[in-house]
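**Polypeptide and fold**
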Amino acid sequence: MDRLREILRRIDGHGYRAYREVLGTYRAGEMELRVDHVQGDPFAEPSRLALRVPLHRTWVPAELAGTPLRRVALGDLVTRIFHRALEAVPGGGADGGLQVEVPGQEVLPRSSCVVDGEALELRFRAGLPADGRRVLGDLAWEMLGGAVPAAAIRSLAPGMDLAGRARRHVEALEDAAAARAALRPRGLVAFVAQGSILPRRSGVDPRPLERGAVPFGPIPGSLRVVLDLPHQGAVEGLGIPAGVTVIVGGGYHGKSTLLAALALGVYDHVPGDGRELVVTDGDAVTVRAEDGRRVEALDISPFARSLPGGRSVRAFSTPDASGSTSQAAAIVEALEVGARVLLVDEDTSATNFMIRDARMQRLVDRADEPIVPLLDQVRGLHERRGVSTVLVAGGSGDWLDVADTVIQMREFRPLDVTAAAREVCAALPAARACEGDWRGLDAAPRRVLPRSFDPRRGARAEAVRSRGLRTLLFGEEEVDLAGVEQLVTPAQTRFIGDVLLHIHGHLTDGQRDVRGLVEAALDAYREGGFDRLARVRVGDRAAARVFEIAAAINRLRSLAVAPEA
């Protein structure tokens, strides 16, 4: 650290590029400060730095780093603590020169804190101070030699009483993992613990609603499930069985709130979120209509008999999908990469994709309607493909005919109305005719051609970055991820960019389908971590599932697949 101070004194007042001299590693006792990347000018992306501290020099009990899941929980907690510590020192926080990726309500594998058996490494960003484009060496020393060590001490000092909080963090994840692992053996696709808090503060604030939130429950006996968890013991909750589940109820009674919680139940949650034990099968995917998106050579024949102009439904392509064809494509794409549960909300779906009622069937002849409604295929999806569906329906009772389970939400409380729904169906038989006959997806896998991935942008050989949560810039393309609802942090979007870049550099042999490409890239991530895909040390990444990565590939307007043999 004395060497770092001397460098900063010497380059004080020099041009900003002189900061490159600080690249390297500096020691303060057993702590290391590493400068991995220095920004080219004051307005460029901030510099990347890291602190590495031996575990025995921190408050962290060694047993809390003993398994991969525990290291994820520990890294998440330490990142949160370090973020608050940066906010407490001069020059820190989101509005200052020091920043760390801030976790949200979900606990994900992240690159912001790397924990191994011997040490803990915190990765952060620093906007190195300048006067115009001149180095401010003294201020840089105050930041790197003062604020950063102070934040490290506030986060990691052995005397801090944080072991209990860390254990709660670890135990919450271990209980959630155990609950999720119990779903399939119990014939379930989701579990919602009694007492969970599902409502959020607002559409832009995912923290739990504090005032007026109704705890989930009581649980109807017919759907009551008790799971035996490693730390909390026996926990009672609502078990959603495999098959077709329809969620009904009046407006503002919690239907969509429940479905949204199930959609994010594929992730673990931070203690205090209220949804710690809302767990969903990890292969559950939200599907919705997405007007205007591109679809490339996709077999949508289960949901479309024919299209005007003789367009193929076995290799359907369009630069501007309609609501119905985009939702059909979303389902088929999810099935291509292994989805076992579909989550569907009537409010975000194309009406004509969901259902054609008896009057519309009478008015528009079946020969004139190419779309096969999901209503008529949802049972075949489960019985012949083993794919369950959880669907929110508020406008059509015809869904009751195909449901295995019907849950009514009344003032955010669940009721099992399956028997009542069957009585209604018997008393008021549906007048519509079934238009479906599940034939499955027997098309050959779509082999992705190398030209699909082009990260070049002008003179730059590789230009890949995220713009917030829902936009990925990949070369000349702007990939719209607005319809990929289970993305929860821009750190995942950056990770998806790394995956696409890795595919471009290592996997474009023209022999793999979408799933094969994504799985091969994720194998590289599992072997070498975030840095393997990014090819540099990064601190602002979070893992994404195969489904969200595949969704990004399918939304590339440059996507090209091999023609059918």
